[in-house]
UniProtKB/TrEMBL annotation:
Identification of the protein by name: Serine/threonine-protein phosphatase 4 regulatory subunit 3 isoform X2
Sequence ranges assigned to domain WH1 in this UniProt record: 1-104
Basic and acidic residues: compositionally biased ranges: 780-791
Lineage: Eukaryota, Metazoa, Ecdysozoa, Arthropoda, Hexapoda
Annotated region described as Disordered, given as residue ranges: 667-703, 738-791
Keyword Nucleus appears in the UniProt entry: yes
Biased composition, class Acidic residues, residue ranges: 673-691, 757-767
GO biological process, one term: DNA damage response
Recorded GO MF terms: protein phosphatase activator activity
Source species: Bicyclus anynana
Record-linked InterPro entries: ARM-type_fold (IPR016024), EVH1_PP4R3 (IPR055236), P4R3-like_central_dom (IPR006887), PH-like_dom_sf (IPR011993), PP4R3-like (IPR051137), WH1/EVH1_dom (IPR000697)
Localization in the cell: Nucleus
Length: 791
């Protein structure tokens, strides 16, 4: 199994007529009892699993292409290919296939037999006996030749026989000689016939004919025949373009002649497929699959030949990073690298991984830092394409390189900041480069693609790096343009860029946690973004609204209190009123925002909106959103009043429970994790609540003695007369009222006063979840909740 002669790659043609790599392994041929015949077996070189088990059928057409390929069809719509590492291995398997089918190994294709109807079989019975007779290759017989070739396209058998006749009689070169004669005497009718003949030869879809037509001495003549389309008033000038305008620039001299010839051939064949040949109809689309396969395998071979030449790539990157290299030369190097990466997309995953590791080891990322900053547009665009290829395949490679720059590189020279800077400086009116770079940043910042292990946490490290070194570069144009009450710049280019920044920030809000939260709260970022609600560009207004909607969707009380404290609904209400009820996307988006608050029952935001904007919004009657908000608000107030009434019956317990215990054993609704605590422990300026009463140092010593006496004290107080309840009314910060119809006993009273259990009912949750309560609101918020509300 270690014999490299039998080492192959298995490909399968997918529904889009593209070759999918099914794996690398070793091929063998042996008799399989289950299949009752000699079969081709391919076992994976990684683990020995069976990749292919295909019986060699006597009537299956096998094709040998380019000395190292064997292609065949299994069934009607399942094409397979074996790409051999060595020609000798391909010849061995080909001889075995021909032995089973009784064919001469010198042939390039075995007879193709297809299932046909009885009528078709009868019609072609004579054809199966006699080969196709080609007319004499003369100028006067071109019309007959054209009709014959076209008539053979309707049947697979006749296509095979025609291809065999063309090859055996060297007919293509004879036709090309006629082409020269017709051009010399300007025989337009003959040239039109030659166009139809060669168009039909392409539709035969035979690799052996392509080898003849794409040879260096014939390919330009074939292109010349395809210039004379009868439907066009004047012939095209494809040969002139390929010879004079399309100049091959060697970024670094290529000494391997086979590689150079393969590059030239691939470019010209791709030009024929995409430009010269007419667009295939829906019935002809599959007839050019062999041409696509020819290009596919050529590209794979080119990449392999370049990878094997270590000196070539080393010299290329050395010249690319040399300060003495001119802009024109550097542009050619970058364009070559771009095509190199483009061809690598045809590699299988493990080969592609090795390919990009090779580029990274040759320092392609430091090279891109240089080329991305060059003013030449072609160089910049090609550099963006290369970076996109790398990030789409392996974003971790770029993240690792970026983290290595944290301690030894100036911020403005870091790759991540260069990418952001180039995105913000894109001068293209359509912002093509900026959109592409925004996509690169989005992939890099996506936590779903970040790895984590015992010794390394890529997610935490990279996000810490980004929010420490790069976020300020990203939001700088946003802050500069929103320093007043309205956006300072409203030109289309600026607002398009701000729209991209908003889209990326919205992605961060949705997928990141405390990192983006700290940035928003510390820099008052939401307030600045909501300045864009006064923009004259509706899409930018919607972008700002979408950002706020992403924040509210998190239902995070840190954010909610920040919005309430800053009165940040004012720009949204203002935009809603200025829209004046017009039935458009902005109106629907704003209504959906408030509908979400109502449906999710976000009490703090609901109370804030109704208390501050209820009078303004009560006249909106074409939707019921705001009336429903008011109803929900009234229900909250009723529950608060009920809580105040019930609290009187438990005030005695609260009076005797030491302040130390009420504070010490109060359970917060949510405890931040260690990393989040690290980010928020310095944000005191954002807290508008009074701190909890701190315990005296000596009180902790007596805590356990006090606990022993609490039950007896409370029991005595509850059993005493009602007059004893008239002491001071002190509400516990985290206490929740019991049900009004429940009997209060001393143990339950003690539990309610000290601990908020997870098993509390929904009604108790509603009663205790006033504004700010879910984040551990202080007594100030509770006093605010009991103030008179607007009707």
């Amino acid at each position: 199994m270690t014999d490299t002669r039998r080492r192959v790659k298995l490909y399968a043609l997918n529904a889009d007529r593209q070759w999918d790599d099914r794996g690398t392994g070793h091929v063998s041929s042996c008799y399989v009892e289950r299949l009752k015949g000699t079969s081709l077996l391919v076992r994976a070189e990684s683990d020995g699993t069976l990749l292919l088990e295909s019986k060699i059928q006597p009537d299956t057409a096998y094709q040998k292409q380019q000395d190292t390929l064997i292609v065949w069809s299994e069934g009607d719509n399942f094409d397979l290919a074996l790409s051999f590492q060595e020609k000798a291995g391909c010849d061995e398997i080909w001889e075995k296939i021909c032995q089973v089918q009784g064919k001469d190994p010198s042939v390039e294709i075995t007879q193709d037999i297809v299932e046909e109807s009885e009528d078709e079989r009868f019609d072609e019975m004579s054809d199966s006996v006699q080969p196709v007779e080609l007319p004499a290759c003369e100028m006067g017989r071109l019309e007959d030749i054209s009709e014959l070739v076209n008539s053979c396209l309707v049947s697979p058998n006749r296509k095979d026989k025609l291809a065999a006749a063309l090859e055996s009689q060297h007919y293509i070169k004879k036709l090309l000689n006629l082409f020269h004669m017709c051009e010399d005497i300007e025989n337009v009718e003959g040239l039109h016939h030659l166009y139809e003949i060669f168009k039909s030869i392409f539709l035969l879809n035979k690799n052996t004919l392509f080898d003849t037509m794409f040879a260096d001495d014939t390919i330009f003549d074939v292109v010349g025949c395809l210039e004379y389309d009868p439907s066009l008033p004047q012939p095209k000038k494809h040969r002139e373009y390929l010879r004079e305008l399309a100049k091959f620039r060697e970024a670094i001299p290529i000494k391997n002649k086979d590689l150079l010839a393969k590059i030239h051939q691939t470019y010209r064949v791709q030009y024929i497929q995409e430009i010269v040949l007419p667009t295939p109809t829906v019935f002809e689309d599959n007839l050019l699959s062999t041409l696509s396969s020819f290009i596919f395998f050529n590209k794979v071979e080119i990449v392999k030949l370049i990878e094997e030449d270590d000196k070539f790539l080393t010299d290329l990157f050395k010249m690319l990073m040399d300060d003495k290299t001119g802009d024109t030369k550097r542009r050619d190097l970058v364009l070559f690298l771009k095509e190199f990466c483009n061809f690598s997309q045809n590699l299988q995953p493990q080969d592609k991984d090795a390919f990009y590791k090779t580029l990274v080891s040759l320092r392609i990322l430091p090279a891109l830092e240089i080329t991305l900053s060059i003013d030449d547009q072609k160089t910049k665009t090609a550099s963006i394409d290369i970076l996109t290829y790398i990030v789409e395949f392996s974003p971790s490679v770029v993240r690792d390189y970026t983290l290595q720059q944290a301690n030894n590189t100036e911020e403005e020279q870091m790759l991540l900041n260069i990418v952001i800077e180039q995105m913000l400086r894109d001068q293209d009116p359509e912002l093509g480069g900026a959109v592409q770079l925004m996509g690169v940043l989005r992939i890099l910042l996506d936590p779903e693609s970040m790895l984590a292990s015992v010794n390394k946490s890529e997610k935490a490290d990279f996000l810490n790096f980004f929010y420490k070194h790069s976020i300020q570069t990203l939001i700088a144009p946003l802050l500069d343009n929103t320093s007043g009450e309205k956006p300072l710049k409203e030109d289309y280019h600026t607002v398009q860029l701000l729209g991209l920044v908003l889209e990326l920030l919205s992605f961060c809000v949705e997928h990141h946690t405390y990192h983006i939260k700290t940035c928003i709260l510390n820099k008052d970022l939401l307030r600045r973004i909501l300045v864009l609600m006064r923009s004259t560009h509706t899409f930018l207004v919607l972008g700002a609204l979408r950002f706020m909607r992403k924040i509210i969707a998190l239902k995070d009380e840190y954010y909610n209190r920040y919005i309430i404290k800053g009165n940040l609904f004012a720009p949204v209400i203002d935009a809603f009123l200025r829209n004046n009820g017009r039935y458009n996307l902005l109106d629907s988006a704003i209504l959906e925002l408030f509908e979400f608050i109502k449906l999710e029952d976000i009490k703090s935001l609901c109370s804030h909106v109704v208390e501050n904007y209820g009078k303004i919004l009560e006249d909106v009657e074409y939707v019921q959103t705001f009336k429903a908000l008011k109803t929900r608000y009234d229900q909250h107030q009723d529950k608060l009043k009920e809580r105040d009434r019930v609290s009187g019956s438990v005030a005695v317990a609260e009076a005797v429970v030491p302040s130390l215990l009420r504070t010490r054993y109060r359970r917060e609704a949510r405890q931040p994790d260690e990393e989040e605590e690290m980010w928020f422990n310095d944000d005191d300026e954002l807290e508008d609540d009074a701190p909890l009463d701190s315990a005296q140092p000596h009180a902790h010593t007596h805590a356990h003695h006090a606990l022993d006496a609490i039950g007896k004290i409370v029991e005595k107080k509850v059993c005493s007369s009602a007059d004893a309840v008239n002491g001071p009314r002190v509400l516990l910060g985290a206490a929740k009222p019991p049900h009004t119809d429940a009997q209060v006993s001393a143990p339950s009273l003690l539990n309610k006063g000290l601990v908020d259990y997870d098993g509390d009912s929904d009604e108790e949750e509603d009663g205790g979840a006033s504004s700010g309560s879910s984040s551990g609101a202080s007594s100030t918020d509770e006093r605010d909740a009991k103030r008179p509300r607007l009707a």
